[in-house]
Amino acid sequence: MPNDDELSAVHRRTRENITSSSPLHGDSKDTSYDVIFVQDDKSDLAGRREIVGAFGLAALGAMLPSPARAGEEQYKDVTTKISSKLLTSAETAAESADALASVNWAAPKVTGLSTEAMAKRIDAGLRRECWFVTGRSMPELFAGSFSFSDPQVSLNGIEEYSRGVRSFYKQGTAVGEIVCTAATASDTITVIWRNYGTVNIGPGFDLAPYIVTTTLKTSAEDGGLIVKQEDAFVADNAALIKYNLFKSQRPAVPPISSVACPLPREA
């Protein structure tokens, strides 16, 4: 298993350039996606407002909220509390409730798993359906004390988190794709995944493909269940604005299989 220093080095600076073909002009076009994984006290959980805000501030005039907001959320500033209302509509709330009706939030907890075994279950579940986008999570793997937080929003409970992301993303157009998952410390599981597509902000707009590092913390006191989630990524605000204003110039999205896993391999 990689140690903390190895993982930190990966998160501090890992770049990936991907060449793809553009179908727009019928020829091959080099497109460079510069992915930077950053881990420090200030960048951790930058919040998708960093991505949404670039286009949203100009279009909506307020800092936009995290995708994970619903139920028992607590706001850390007034602007976030006001702008959070932009995420909620009768349509998205009803859609979220109906789509998640079959999820058993009271499912018996699966305890006693090692971190490696938990990582394998998380990876398999996310590859079947990426609940980071759809909200159709696996409650049996999450402790009752599970929390999600970022600089402006914090909430408790896997159901609240799941309903929040379900409402945030426009289902059927938003995409979450898993690159790799690994146990990276005795109590830590790291998931590298790609996110892009339409979000339910105002009239709706698109997120360009970007890489997310999700850190899941487990707790021995809770039977090895997941107790905390943090998301980290780097946003290119100028590129996001261009991506939405000049849709005909968007490059083709390369297959997820072309994205290399930056996590150190187990010995």
Helicity range of the residues? 25-40%
Our measurement of the CA-to-CA distance between the termini, rounded to an integer number of angstroms, reads: 6 Å
Strand content: 15-25%
Give the helix/strand class: alpha+beta
Arithmetic mean pLDDT: 74
Shape designation:
globular
Q: Major sheet: order of its strands?
A: 3-5-4-9-8-7-6
Uncertain parts: 6-46, 57-66, 68-72, 75-88
Structural Rg:
18 Å
Q: Main β-sheet, in a few words?
A: 7 strands, mixed
Quantity of strands, as a count: 9
Describe it for me?
- The chain is an alpha+beta fold and 267 residues long.
- 28% of the residues lie in helices and 25% in strands.
- Strand 8 (205-219) and strand 9 form a beta hairpin.
- Helix 2 (49-60) crosses helix 8 (237-245).
- The longest helix is centred in the middle third of the chain and has 14 residues, at 115-128.
- The protein is globular and about 50 Å long.
- It starts with a helix and ends in a 22-residue tail after the last helix.
- The model is unreliable at 6-46, 57-66, 68-72 and 75-88 (pLDDT under 50).
